[in-house]
Amino acid sequence: MLKENINNLIAEAMKTHQSDRLETLRLIKNQLLVLEKSGHPYTEESELKTLMKMVSSHEDSIKQFEDAKRQDLADKERLELNIIKEYIPEQPSDEDIEKYTNEVIEQYMVNNSLSNDDLGMRHMKPIMELVKAKYNTPNVGKIVSNVLKNKIFK
């Protein structure tokens, strides 16, 4: 987990005089401390969600700064965003998750002797659990829901 390595990363950035990296690592450390003190279980998944929220926040800030013609601030946010993304594991694409979800649905229908007419939203939870066993990323729920709705409501 990043939480265990963050202090070493900060020390390394200080030694190498990488002020932008140091500042961003301190932001990450602060958000991880907020997560830890929130009372929610601290897991790799919650850590990833925190980093993904930071990415989303920085992307929104970049858009707002560019709309306001503040390229200097947008560039600073973009630099921080790239540093944060270094600590996020490679995420599967939406297409990969969608393809796997279709495979899981087909297999689920075979295992449960279901036809396309029998498939319903009540089957989402078991299908979701099967997909999450392989891909446990923040956007999995939305993708599984969309794929299942497309199969049901064609």
How would you describe the overall organization of this protein?
This protein is mainly α. The protein contains 7 helices and no strands.
SSE arrangement:
Elements: H1 2-15, H2 19-37, H3 44-67, H4 71-85, H5 94-111, H6 124-134, H7 140-152
Helix pairs in contact: 1-2, 2-3, 2-4, 3-4, 5-6, 5-7, 6-7
Characterize this entry briefly.
The chain has 154 residues and is mostly helical. Helix content is 74%, strand content 0%.
Would you list the SSEs in sequence order as H and E?
HHHHHHH
Mean pLDDT: 89
| Poorly predicted parts | none
End-to-end CA span: 42 Å
Specify the number of helices: 7
Tell me how many strands there are: 0
Helix content: over 70%
Q: The biggest beta sheet, please?
A: none
Radius of gyration: 20 Å
Q: How much of the sequence is in beta strands?
A: under 5%
Structural class: mainly alpha
Query: Which shape, going by the Cα principal axes?
Result: elongated
